[in-house]
Structures
1.
Amino acid sequence: MKYKLNKYIRVRFAPSPTGPLHIGGLRTALFNYIYAKKNNGKFILRIDDTDKKRFIKNSINYLIDSLKWCNIKYDEGYGKKGKYKPYIQSKRLKIYKKYINKLIKNKLAYYAFDKKKTLNLYKKKYKYFIYNCLTRKYLNNSLNINNKKIIKLIKNNKYVIRLKTPYNKIITFYDKIYGKISINTNKLDDKIIYRSNNTPTYHFANVIDDHLMNITHVIRGKEWLSSTPLHIIIYNYFNWKTPKFVHLPLILNKKGKISKRNLNNNNIPIFPIKSNYKNINVKNSYEELGFLPEALINIMALLGWQPNINNEIFNINTIIKLFTLKDINKSDVHLNFKKSCWINHKYININKINNNKKIFNLLKKFLIYSHIYTNDKLLNKIINLIVNRIKLININEIWYNSYYFFIIPKKFYIPLNIKKYIISNKKKIINYFFKLNCFFKKNPNKKQIILFFKNLQNNNNDYYLFLKIIRILIIGELKGISLFDIFYILNYKNIIFRINNFKYIILNYYK
Ligand code: GLU
């Protein structure tokens, strides 16, 4: 594929390794990837690991594995060679130190000494208290107290460094999705940007890195939109050009914004793959539930992006071709499990050969485990017939759609109208069962079966009700593929057995 050449576009995905990557993060990675590919740009993976308190071991491995599973390849970044190395923030501490010193020197950042506890008390006392350009003059910081004291406190590591936001200034920026945004700096707080243990906070490190790594477009979740003015102030303080901002709508489930901390998600998976890493034990993932990675890509692309065409199934190449930022919605999006299953179902059928194999292997394994013997040829035939009904490639779903080929139903779900019909037409039905019995005893072929049922239809006003009864006696309920297809596969003895089994039930229970 050839796209408009724009050498300069550089986007990044900058997750924090604070737990397993969820679908929200992966969607951000995907949109960055798509945007880079569309514009012939570079997609960079950077690990934002400055928050050591929330660091969770193995989250980077999980992240890399998830990207791999989805085939979202990055051009540059963590674990790869690149001009802007290192791509993990904990290895860039010297760089941040240099820049924080610059801000301090220019009096654009300052040391603040009040303890968290003290500030929390102020918050309790004054409802709208924030540490900012209006309140800082009343607080303990290097702008107010004498030098001797400052030196002592810094020596004792009893400080944080805060950004000195300008007083009463309007910060305006354009977000490619949310448009023009303006905010008065009096409403912003003087955010902590550096800690006494020589580590930057996210806000500071992220701006420094985006600048030094020549990031042209910051594409990330909307939860960062409110922090963007602060980032812009930092860019301005260094006289750096700001990148373009693209904030993606939030992804919600029934309980609110999805996040690693909100795992109770009404059974909608939020993690892409299963993992048994220490500290990262992910269950109920898209992978385990039987989603295909290419379907997940399609599902995620539709989380916020709505192209102006009458189709919702597109592979990654088509997505890249169609993608424009204009088609990204402002409103939050909901994870819709039913729709996700429908999309997955479409993908199962797009790559039938491969997916039939996967279904075959799962089913065969299960049958062996359950001591049910069948041959591969028959199994393939069955899979070909049921694949159109399978939404997820997992054994529950496969078995739900195929059990009646292998076992005789023990429970029968008979709708009320059919029950009533059976009770008042028992003799007639038993009579038809007798005919069926005699017919199947001859081990009929396809043609003969079709002919038999045609005749039956001509001589029976209740033919369709009768077919329903046959379906129930074969499957146990009113579902499944065409009855004729089932007849062609089931051994005639098996059919006869099921007819007699059901006849017995009718005679005994519907007296
Ligand atoms: N480290 C931040 C996160 O985990 C990145 C936010 C950004 O893209 O600027 O979401």
2.
Amino acid sequence: MDPLFPALTAARGEALRFGDRSLTYPELASVAGSLALRLRDAGRVAVWATPSLETAVAVVAALLAGVPAVPLNPKSGARELAHIVSDSAPSLVLTEPGAELPPALGGLDRLDVDVRDTTGTPAAAGTEPDDPESPALIVYTSGTTGPPKGAVLPRRAIAATLDALEDAWQWTADDVLVHGLPLFHVHGLILGALGPLRRGGSVRHLGRFTTEGVARELGAGATMLFGVPTMYHRIAEALPDDPELAKALAGARLLVSGSAALPVHDHERIAAATGRRVIERYGMTETLMNTSVRADGEPRAGAVGVPLPGVELRLVDEANDEIAADGPEAVGEIQVRGPNLFTEYLNRPDATASAFAPGGWFRTGDMAVRDADGYVRIVGRKATDLIKSGGYKIGAGEIENALLEHEGVREAAVTGEPDPDLGERIVAWVVPADPQAPPSAEELADHVASGLAPHKRPRVVRYLEALPRNDMGKIMKRSLPGS
Ligand code: MCA
Ligand code: AMP
């Protein structure tokens, strides 16, 4: 297979910038090249994925060495980290110098990434493995029940998705991308960091998302912005009082939203204030990118565009039969096939098998309709137990299990409810062990944040005397008051 980063040793300009620290292509080739040599025999590595230069260098080095990398959310709690580490069994953890690692990583060797070590061999792109199916990244993603599953992403999928986006977005080496996305998920890591590097362009990471950072970078030469809908919502809120932000957005080449649906109201507010239309693309950890509004296509609020080159997409009914019709009544589950797909869930042949329909079609669980010209509109999700909050996918079962471990909780159910900022917010319905002394909402939020991750914490806790159950004893979430 051709190298993942053909521009690495050829490009001369800036590759990565995080705050006031940056690396040019020759520097990145040298730093990542020397680190790759040290990783050759590492087997599999974890990356402590802080929003830093070190994370980007660590992942590029692992890819050059042909060593699968497992990005870790540095805010993950003890329970989540312990699961990921025992499931993926990395030999060492790559981290920025000085980072304090939690006890759950205590058993791993630690390798501090030195981004100033440019004395090494420039990356020999030829050292990358030839096999397009060899695993490149293992990205953990939540399901409806149980702990997160590791989606194994081969080199072929990364190359295919980034090249399809090159075509759809007319993405070139001249593009400068700005974003503040986390680097432990597909959006921020594969699209937002590896994407520019495959093109020979550059990325400026904000460290953390702020509208000021977006305005500053788009006002200083950045051409593209990637974000989740929560970020565009915050931009829409800030625009009326921030003419600099409006000017900066107006000057961008492409504003792209994904990971969840961008509400039409936010689309319209941004268009009214800037004259620019945000375009949406639709993807998934297991499939990378499936559809997008094209740069040369018609932006359409509420639609995620057309299938990307190489991606086959169909809608199916309950019986798994293809729906050929279009229009708002022809709702079906999206299934996809193509070189963009993952290979398996690590150590989960059962889950892998049930994720595919006959013919190798991946069942996304997303429900959609199509406009007459093929534009896809996502209208819902098959599983009510999956919540999208701030662009993060969160399984209700995982939070319920964590809540049930709290001594003050007798029963728990978790649902998502609409939230103007987060899209959905997590609501915990709790039957306290002692109705006279229920655990406080803050205590339960802290319990989930420290065991799993802060973005999985309930934003609202509602107390009940009993959960509604059917005759079989199954919790009937649809009968929860107000849900
Ligand atoms: C608050 N915090 C707490 C607690 N309460 N920490 C511990 N315990 C608590 N009880 C902290 C948080 O850690 C955070 O810290 C701060 O308070 C604010 O928290 P929160 O309100 O949750 O965060 P936010 O700033 O409102 O986050 C909004 C966000 C974020 C920035 C939009 O949701 C985000 O980055 N989303 C991106 C998700 C994403 O990339 N998804 C892609 C997956 P601190 O301030 O220090 O941070 S989907 C994907 O990859 C597919 C392929 C696709 O299609 O893209
Ligand atoms: P994740 O599993 O975290 O990778 O999230 C994938 C899910 O995010 C998809 O199955 C969709 O439900 C959702 N998603 C991603 N992009 C969009 C979008 N542009 N519009 C609506 N939903 C989206």
3.
Amino acid sequence: MKVGVFDSGIGGLTVVKSMLEHELFEEIIYFGDTARVPYGIKDKNTIIRYAIEAVEFFKNFELSLIIVACNTVSAYALDEMRESSNCPVIGVVEAGALATANALKNKQSNILILGTNATINSKAYEKNLNKLGFNNLQAKATGLFVPLVEEKIYSGDILEATFEHYFKEMQTPDAIILGCTHFPIILPALQNYFDKGTIFIHSGEAIVEYLEKKFDFTRKYKEPTLKFFASENPDALKKIASAWLPI
Ligand code: DGL
């Protein structure tokens, strides 16, 4: 299978990492809209317009599937992307909600949803989780994590201060949804901050779980072809890919 992975920038590489670890695809075409990131502070119409442009870009390749690694795009633009795409389009929000439901036995469990301003405002995770019978939800827009990760701040005082800023008054959750591509990068710091028993849901792992249930993957691809495209400075994207991915 040849798959396109779309993100607003570099963050979607965390999803590619999970895809590579599970060896599902023969070829992965990654497109990061690095010229226009961040999407998480933009409005719905802009996010939809950019997402449709990404679908147009992917028409240059004969893809079996487009995976939207970006939570913000998954929250707002999946229907419109599907309308203009000639292959299936799947997003991380539905997959993340399903992975959360699978990880939690008790429907009363408290779930904390983290994401960009746009993702949190969309209430997309809440809608999916409510359908699955989970109603004990808290949500927090933690947009500051995005520039911190881009600045390679993955631990230390500045990050700890943002944790205090965002979480000091929060009830300790049973599960935390990392509803943004960048957040898995600071997972060790988040694990350190929260209770030992808190479960973390990672978009990359969630999408792999979703794909394995939905499609029949009979072959493993140990050395898939990887192609990286960016709307600005593709070399910077490739450099980060070398640092974050096992390539
Ligand atoms: N990729 C975005 C997401 O997962 C985070 C970065 C942005 O704001 O564009 O929501």
4.
Amino acid sequence: MNIIDGKQLAANLRAEIAAGVKALKEEKGITPGLAVILVGNNPASVSYVTAKEKACTEAGMYSREIRLPETTTEEELVKLVKDLNVDPAIHGILVQLPVPKHIRDKAVIDAIAPEKDVDGFTPINVGKMLIGEKCFLPCTPHGIIKLIEFSGMDIKGKHAVVVGRSNIVGKPVAVLLARKETNATVTLCHTGTPDIARFTKEADIVVVAAGRPNTVTGDMLKPGAVVIDVGVNRIPDDTKPKGFRLVGDADFDSCAKVAGAITPVPGGVGPMTITMLLWNTLKSANG
Ligand code: NAP
């Protein structure tokens, strides 16, 4: 059984991205710029945003950190996004979700210019991905495809089961796996699926993005399957300095006994999500 080392793959790709950033600066005098907006101080969001800003700077990019109070209005946030849309120093705009309840996600995402939508969340980019046009691919799903390839699995002709149908992970990863260049046969499971194990037991690839620990256990897998665990769940744990530990949506110990390869949590999908964000920002700056 192989552990799919997301940190290693991310490091490989980040070195390529850093080289691309350097070349762009030298050849065209352009420094890729990413604006990261955080509204409020949700602890998980603060740590995601800090990691994104650090990765951006390490790749040689310009990172503009914009931290706004919880009381920011939808109008103020939309105005800020629109200003960034026309700011030549900024090639990518990221609004960390979730935003406070009084702000509609949709209003904010719709305000982002598709050509700076490095998260790949705007309807224009989602639609282009669906019909196979050039676009910014959403970061987590794109990173998942890279991880499956990195595991050594040839995706073509394989049966992939995706558990979860969110707009940011499950649905787009199902679309990417089914594209002609990837060519998997895809089954998409969700809470309306009566018996998920019936499908996962036949899968060569299982992607779990349910937001619930132990959604997939070893007895639900076909021997040798590649398991990509997207979940990030905080479990209270007094033995840890922060008072919690992170677990995925798959039960790692039982899955590792049956799977051919599996991503750990942390250290699997997470580092790849940030890496694909840098990838998109460089792509945007390259024009
Ligand atoms: P989400 O919006 O809560 O969606 C979860 C999906 O899983 C829903 O479609 C839900 O079905 C389905 N589901 C929930 N319980 C299920 C069960 N028991 N059986 C089958 N389907 C089930 O979550 P998300 O945004 O996709 O995120 C999923 C997980 O990935 C979370 O833990 C999140 O923190 C993590 N995540 C990690 C990264 C990363 O970079 N590492 C990025 C994004 C998300 P219904 O549609 O029927 O409700």
